[in-house]
Design brief:
Rossmann fold; binds uridine-5'-diphosphate-glucuronic acid; 3 domains; globular; 6-stranded parallel sheet; 434 residues; alpha/beta; single chain; EC 1.1.1.22; N-(1-d-carboxylethyl)-l-norvaline Dehydrogenase, domain 2; 44% helix; NAD
Length: 434
């Protein structure tokens, strides 16, 4: 099939590349000339495991190309994916200006039937708004489809190639047929494609992310309670997770959910509910708890150092909001750094992928180490903010010589409690005994 993908951000690029992988011809469009030039020269602009192999293969085989020329991409394609940003606007609700703007531009270029597919996370009713833009500007038959993405950063390629499910919101039989054909190679193992109306599809995305954020937040509160009553959250997690109705995944407590999706989507859904005169109390509580959870490590530090951390130096392992990504959007590590700096402490950080992004944001406000051990040099304590695999099994002997105080505040529960006791560490983790 002939496909255009408008927007080569994280979602657009993964979508375009993975659609080319099953034999489609994909043209990716972006207004950023420099970025398009780089991609034309074979440079993958984001870090996403496995993406580079598919990216290069499909470029070489002529199925994946890049352009700034929207008219060309529209002319050449029958299916047009929109993967554009929907940042929170001034009122916190998703800002649709990129999507509606692109819809307007496309509507002026179409000369024959096209399916416009929205991949971005958008408020309920957006497909109708996009359709209205087309109705205003062209007589040509257009179907607008909602097709939310459920990709996780770090495993996005796998998630696209083997999705748990595909959700497609359209009431047009013609569009439904084309979408079923497009996705057939991805659901060969029998995973479902759910067809539904556009509004249900749009809400499915927000409901999925908000439910997962709620699940994590619930566990974060259970973890906080475990600390108070002397229980072990790992035991509780296993105890409840083995019940199929609850499930084992997304029950890991930590220092709050972050990233470009959960915080934004939970807020957008709460606001959407509000603007429809529905008070979504549960989501409000989730947001409040998560806000506090992001700085629990600092609260623990302050308690440990009797409220005074001025002049102390802390090693920080992990800056990305989660492992296997260089994404630092809404990363708990940044909130921790802020709180530490405000209190006059110093920070030496290390992250396997996100250092450049943090350097661009914070410059010399903190120090950067070349590896996880170098970060420990002269530190009063180690703080762990991201569960990168490389942090899971460090050389404790090597650490001992560097981290003289043997003090660790772990926001991701990386180490075995007994092991840390045996090694003589003060090891403060989340929801577990000291
Ligand atoms: C999330 C969803 O999982 C995807 O399905 C969705 O497509 C995507 O948002 C999106 O809307 O684009 P992502 O933000 O990449 O994906 O990352 P997740 O792996 O879901 O993690 C989100 C946050 O939850 C991270 O901060 C992570 O550390 C935290 N988390 C996750 C926990 O604290 N505990 C857990 O058990 C799992």
């Amino acid at each position: 099939m002939k496909i255009a993908v408008i927007g080569t951000g994280y979602v657009g690029l993964v979508t375009g590349t993975c659609l080319a992988e099953t034999g489609n011809n994909v043209i990716c469009v972006d207004i950023d000339k420099a970025k398009v030039e780089k991609m034309k020269n074979g440079e993958v602009p984001i870090y996403e495991p496995g993406l580079d192999v598919l990216f290069h293969r499909n470029i070489e085989q002529g199925r994946l190309s890049f352009t700034t020329d929207l008219a060309l991409a529209v002319k050449e394609s029958q299916l047009i994916f929109m993967a554009l940003p929907t940042p929170p606007g001034g009122d916190g609700a998703a800002d649709l200006s990129y999507i509606l703007g692109a819809a307007k531009d496309i509507s002026k270029l179409v000369t024959e039937y096209k399916v416009i597919i929205n991949k971005s996370t958008v408020p309920v009713g957006t497909a109708d708004k996009v359709q209205a833009v087309f109705n205003e500007n062209t007589q040509v038959e257009i179907d607008v489809v909602s097709n939310p993405e459920f990709l996780r950063e770090g495993v996005a390629v796998d998630d696209f190639m083997k999705p748990d499910r595909v959700v497609i919101g359209t009431r047009s039989e013609k569009a439904q047929k084309l979408m079923a054909e497009l996705y057939a190679p991805y659901v060969r193992q029998g995973n479902p494609i759910f067809f539904m109306d556009e509004r249900s599809s749009e809400l499915t995305k927000y409901a999925a992310n908000s439910f997962l954020a709620t699940k994590i937040t619930f566990m974060n509160e259970i973890a906080n309670l475990c600390e108070i009553v002397g229980a072990d959250v790992d035991a509780v997690r296993r105890g409840i997770g083995s019940d199929d109705r609850i499930g084992k995944r997304f029950l890991f407590p930590g220092i709050g959910y972050g990233g470009s999706c959960f915080p934004k989507d939970v807020q957008a859904l709460a606001i959407a509910a509000e603007s429809n005169s529905y008070n979504f109390q549960l989501l409000k509580a989730v947001m409040q708890v998560n806000e506090k959870q992001k700085t629990i490590l600092v609260d623990k530090l302050l308690k440990y150092y009797n409220g005074d951390i001025k002049g102390k130096r802390f090693a920080l392992w992990g800056l990305a909001f989660k492992p296997e990504t260089d994404d630092i959007r809404e990363a708990p590590a940044l909130y921790i750094i802020d709180e530490l700096l405000i209190r006059g402490a110093k920070v030496t950080a290390f992250d396997p992928e996100a250092m450049d992004n943090v350097k661009a944001l914070l410059g010399d406000k903190i120090d950067y180490a070349n590896n996880q051990y170098e970060a420990l040099q002269g530190a009063d304590a180690l703080l762990i903010a991201t569960e990168w695999s490389v942090f899971r099994n460090p050389d404790f002997e090597k650490m001992e010589g560097l981290l003289a105080n043997k003090t660790i505040f772990d926001g991701r529960n990386l180490f075995d409690l007994q092991k840390m006791i045996d090694l003589g560490y003060y090891y403060n983790s989340v929801g577990r005994k000291l």
